[in-house]
Known about the structure:
The chain is α/β, with parallel strands linked by helices. It is built from nine helices and seven strands. The two termini are about 20 Å apart.
Amino acid sequence: MILDGVVADRNYTWLGTERDKRNYFDRALDAPHFKPTDYPHVTYRAGGEETTRYFPDKLPIGIEKHGFQRPVFLYLVTRDVPVDFRLFLIRHAELFRTVRRFTVRLLIPRRFRKSTSLYRFAFRDELAMPIDPTTAERLQAYFQRRQHARGHLTEQADAELEKAFRTFGSARFKALYRWWLHRGDPVIWAAQSPVLRDAIAYGEGRLECVELSRQYLQLTSLVGVA
């Protein structure tokens, strides 16, 4: 399905490997403050060793062959609800802020087309609704309490947080909490930034939804076969 999405658009050079993506953005970004750890990444620890994988989603990124520099980040929809998509957006948020002009292109199999509106909402919810400083401060303390209690985000600590959960939605805070467990408080600080909200408002940040015309159900039996 991803291959179909890539082959269908020949206006882009598609970067597939971690190395190609790092090499391209290392050259293209004119941002002295941008650090390697600002790339989407996941760190694995085993014993005393630590390994960091960049661009862990392993999804192609398209670079325009001609015209303006607007990278296209592919995302294949594989679930009815955008739980994993929210984490994808959070992981890429700092890179989105740095490139300023970007497109997230959803590849949507027919079986998930009814979920398109949920994914559109998640895109705006995660990127176009910065959290206010008061909520961020309360979230920081709340996340710490939930971590120490080894619990999930099921109970709000006070009336103000209950209001925030209604405003931003529990799905957003659950995704933020999952990433906070990996990256700590900078995740909450970044969620306050208005940069992506403004980029989306001015058309610099976009979401495209492409419904895949082919059916792939005949390949279901091959999933997971080595």
